[in-house]
Design goal:
The protein has 2 helices and 8 strands, in the order βββαββββαβ. The protein has an 8-stranded mixed beta sheet with strand order 2-6-3-5-4-7-1-8. It has a single domain (2-97), classed as Barwin-like endoglucanases (Beta Barrel). Helix content is 11%, strand content 47%. β4 and β5 form a beta hairpin. It is mainly β and 115 residues long. Its cofactor is pyruvate. It catalyses: L-aspartate + H(+) = beta-alanine + CO2. InterPro entries: Asp_de-COase-like_dom_sf, Asp_decarbox. Pathway: Cofactor biosynthesis; (R)-pantothenate biosynthesis; beta-alanine from L-aspartate: step 1/1.
């Protein structure tokens, strides 16, 4: 049997932009992506702490050390600049693998940068 477990989490990051006219996805500062072990194109779940919205999309890299967190396409309607998000990705593994697996957890500062 295989189960899904949290693989990566960027905790309490601030929305810097929302671009309704983009194809879709979430743009994340590449430094945050690296720290959270999230790759370009990876599916993520986004939880908006500010309004309770939840959505799934895929990641595209933003400029390093920019702090950028931009929701694109239809997802832009689910956020406002300044909203606080949790961004998570999941992995599929056996129960035995999951028992010893340690997710990558990132806690950015108020500017969406690594401490």
């Amino acid at each position: 049997m295989q189960i899904q477990v949290v693989k990566s989490k960027i905790h309490r990051v601030k929305v810097t932009g929302a671009d309704l006219n983009y194809i879709g996805s979430v743009t994340i500062d590449e430094d945050l992506m690296d720290a959270a072990n999230i790759i370009e194109g990876e599916k993520v779940q986004i939880v908006n702490n500010s309004n309770g919205e939840r959505l799934e999309t895929y990641v595209i890299p933003g400029p390093r050390n920019s702090g950028e967190i931009t929701l694109n396409g239809a997802a832009a309607r689910k956020v406002a600049k300044g909203d606080i998000l949790i961004i998570m990705s999941y992995g599929i593994m056996t129960i035995e693998e999951a028992k010893s697996f340690k997710p990558s957890l990132v806690f950015p500062n108020d500017d969406n940068k690594l401490n």
